[in-house]
Amino acid sequence: MNNINKLFSNQNTSLTNLKIQSEVATIEYCTLVKLSINNMHYALDIKHVHEIVDAIEIAPYPEKIKNHLGIINIRGKILPVIEIEECKNKKKKDKEKIVAIAFSNNNLFTLKCDKVQKYLYEKNALVPGQIINLNNVPTYFLDEEEFNTLMRSLI
Hints:
- InterPro entries: CheW-like_dom_sf, CheW-lke_dom.
- It holds the Pfam family CheW.
- This protein is mainly beta.
- Helices cover 13% and strands 41% of the residues.
- Strands 8-1-2-10-9 form a five-stranded mixed sheet, with no helix packed on it. Strands 3-6-7-5-4 form a five-stranded mixed sheet, with no helix packed on it.
- It starts with a helix and ends with a helix.
């Protein structure tokens, strides 16, 4: 023990003067909703998801409109159902969901999805339009601008 005290005294330092500082970085997370549509995957912040319902019957339009499957009634609102990826297999799947999405302009869009999942993701790591990894699945992250661009290309 004498040797240790001599070592610290020679350096003008003592054990009591040593300070250990640690900084704990806070990481913010956001909840993402991943939409799987015909083997394509899209994610958006949960705050933009208005409602998720089990697939209900879609009333077709009298004439074919590109990328529109028809209309549905969700809580008294008649909404168009948009098709992002054309489905080659038109069979109804057991677990299909209808997702109503609303951004700041409060226009509701509904999408028919094969699967809907929820994930926590580091908020600072999100860049609109980027491909993110959600459970080893490449997923396209959409913010309002990206989503509106996608919708304009379809409608």
